[in-house]
Every structure is written in C-alpha cells, then in structure tokens.
Amino acid sequence: MSPAADQSPAAGPAGQGAPSGQAGLPPGKDAPAGFWYGTDSWPVPVSGAGPYRLAPVDGSYGGYVGMAGNWARWQGCSAGNFLAWSGTNARQAAVNFSRYGAGIGTAVYWYMGGPGVDPHWNGSTKEAAAWGAVQAAHAIADADADKATYPVLFMDIEMPGIAPAPDNGWSVVYTSPCSGAARSGQHVSPALSRAEFNGFDDYLTAHSRFKAGVYSDPAIWQQIFGTGPDSRIPHTYEWTYEPETASLAAAPHGWCLPGRGASGCAQFFGDVAKSSQYAVMWQWSGGGGVRNPIGDFDQIDAAIIR
To answer: Which residues contact 126 (CB under 8 A, 6 or more apart)?
Structure first.
C-alpha cells in the first residue's frame, strides 16, 4: 500500500450491477472463470478506450482497489498522511464493470490506525471498539464519495514501518496519534486489537451497504492478533499479499503462480484458506515489498461476491 499521485475523482454509478453480457471485451488471460486481474493504490497504465485492458498481464481490466482514507491523514499528522488513490484507474474499472460486465469495478480500503494511536486511549476494550467504529463511519463516507461498486470494504491492517507510527498503533501506545513517542509501560494486546476490529465490523454492517473485509498477511496478522481466539476470522472477507513475485509474466491462475508449487499459492490468514468463500483477493505483485517496474497487481475472485 503506497501513496498515489493521481487523486482525480472517480466516475461511474455507485452500486450499479453489471450487465449480463460481455460484448466488446477483448480476449485475455484472466482465469479461471470468475477470476480477474486488477490493480490497487498507485496509478497503473491501462490500455484501450473502453473496454480497458491490463496490458502488462494480458487481461481485461478487472478492478481497481483504492485507499478511501488514512487514519494519519484524518488525524492531521504531518507524516504518513498520503492517500493512495487513482481516479483514472477507478474510472476505467467502473466503465469495464458497468458497461462491459468485466470485473468488480472499484473497491476501497481504509488504512487503519490501531488502538495505540487512539487519541482517547484508556486501555479498555470498550474504547478500542469505539475507535474502530468511528473509523468505520469515516470509511463509509469516503467509500460512498469514491463511488465504490464492490460490496466489501477492507480494513488495511499492517505495520508499515513509517512515521508517525511504524506499527500503525497495533503494538505501541503513543502519547498522541501523531507524536511518534511511546507511552511508558503500555502496549496493545490482541484482545484490544480484536475489540477495535469488531467495532469497525459491527458499525460497518449496521450502518452501510458494505460487508467487512481485511487486508493483511499471515505473519502480520499473528503479530497483532496472536494465535488464539482473537486471531480467528473464518467468516470475514480477506485480501492477502503473500507470496509475491516481481515478474508480471508469471501472473497467477486461480490462487497460484505458475511453476511454484504450494509455495506459490496465496496465503490467507485467521482460519481462512484459499478454498474458502471468504478468500476474495490476492495482491500477487508490487505491494508487500516485492516490487515490479509498474505498480501493484491483484487477482480477484468475483465469482464469490458481487
């Protein structure tokens, strides 16, 4: 997940279903049936004039996933306040979805701040849940403004290693959201992290058209939520980023990169396997540190949920 230079507004009807046909779509390698290649965050060059193609992986452009909001930006921090959004890619994805029946259109994620950057921190699960709920409220408003067509809104839960909070507040408790200074003797437990997660999920479900999803990977997930009950989310939609490849010529089929065996298959987390109906996206190149020359590429199983 990285900042994007292109932040022009997206176009396309929010929530409009795709037509049943796919007239005008060029042939591509998006496979098997129901899977699409898409991009996220950084602007990526997309070819054509509608229908659009994702030329680097030789497929139809199957969706864009952008950052609806960022906790540090919302809190007014001078560091880490980027917004990884491409209005151009969102518009192209929306056109393919609404006009040609290709992919998912536009999806969004909210860059989560953990309990440790809550300005009202008091160490209670009640406050952690409230912090999750207020972030969900902002995420809903931003997703609607972005005309998101995909019904899952993702919590981006990661430890980015950048200021103002290298862990995004998932382990360290800070003196204020933007200070970068830790409070002595206090830390974030898996129970507090899960309370925030539940607060976001519950608010989102009760107050919007969206279903809750999460972007993370197995190692980060375990570091934040442990291995006990707080880590288990078998009924939450997931977007993972492990494993990755720098080669765009090695685009995946299903959830696996060609020629890599089991080590080349998407690794979901929190008791969700790649065979689960809740495994919906995989950032297979460009996002988790394994860079390519162009940007972030994803595989999307649109057959599961529309």
So the answer is: 195
Residue type, 138: H
Q: Supply 155's token pair.
A: 């919590």
For the stretch 99-118, pLDDT in tens is 999 999 999 999 999 999 99
Q: How many CB atoms lie within 10 A of CB 235?
A: 12
Q: Express each pLDDT in 32-59 by its tens digit.
A: 888 999 999 989 999 998 899 998 888 8
CB 84 within 8 A of CB 287: no
- Residue 162 CA to residue 69 CA, distance in Å, equals 17
User: Is 183 domain-assigned?
Assistant: yes
Tell me the pTM. 0.92
User: In terms of residue numbers, what domain contains 134?
Assistant: 35-301
Count of structural domains, the chain: 1
Tell me the two tokens of residue 225.
């939520």
- Residue 38's DSSP bridge partners are 298
- Widest distance between CA atoms in the chain: 62
Does 220 reside within a domain? yes
CATH number at residue 141: 3.20.20.80
